């Protein structure tokens, strides 16, 4: 089966008093997932807003990645490809491909 999909991610950032908040929204066309992340500038550190943006956004996207993995685990189990005897590790029968 060949197919091509496009998923879109929007990241909204806000900063106030040394705290940056990010909300990432993944739209797959069939569902939407929202992830959140926060970064706080330590009082003794130089305030570099771009660093707070990067940290908060990466944490929000990591939140989405965890939600996607949980959804994949549920879907795998629903088709009988769940973990065997409590085994943990990479997705069952799907190999990990390094970039």
Write the layout of secondary structure elements.
Layout: E1 8-16, E2 19-27, E3 32-40, H1 49-78
Antiparallel strand pairs: 1-2, 2-3
Write a brief structural summary.
The chain is α+β, with helices and mostly antiparallel strands. The protein contains 1 helix and 3 strands, in the order βββα.
CA-based shape: elongated
What is the helix content? 25-40%
Spatial order of strands in the largest sheet = 1-2-3
Please identify the structural class as seen in this structure: alpha+beta
| Gap from first CA to last CA | 22 Å
Unreliable stretches covering 5 or more consecutive residues? none
Mean of all residue-level pLDDT scores: 88
Q: Tell me what portion of residues adopts beta-strand conformation.
A: 25-35%
What is the total tally of β strands? Answer: 3
Helix/strand order, N-terminal first: EEEH
Main sheet record: 3 strands, antiparallel
SS element count, helices: 1
- Give me the Rg, rounded: 18 Å
Account of the 3D structure:
The protein is of the alpha+beta class and 99 residues long. The chain is 30% helix and 27% strand. The chain is built from one helix and three strands; from the N terminus they run βββα. It has one helix at 49-78; strands spanning 8-16, 19-27, 32-40. A three-stranded antiparallel beta sheet has the order 1-2-3. It is elongated and about 50 Å long. The protein starts with 7 loop residues before the first strand and ends in a 21-residue tail after the last helix. The model has no long low-confidence stretch (mean pLDDT 88).
């Amino acid at each position: 089966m060949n197919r091509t999909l496009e998923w879109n991610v929007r990241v909204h950032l806000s900063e106030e008093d040394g705290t940056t908040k990010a909300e990432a929204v993944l739209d797959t066309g069939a569902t939407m997932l929202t992830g959140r992340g926060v970064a706080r500038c330590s009082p003794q550190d130089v305030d570099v807003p771009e660093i707070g943006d990067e940290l908060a956004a990466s944490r929000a996207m990591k939140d989405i990645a965890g939600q996607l993995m949980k959804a994949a685990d549920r879907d795998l189990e629903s088709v009988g490809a769940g973990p065997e005897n409590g085994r943990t590790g990479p997705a069952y029968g799907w190999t990990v491909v390094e970039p």
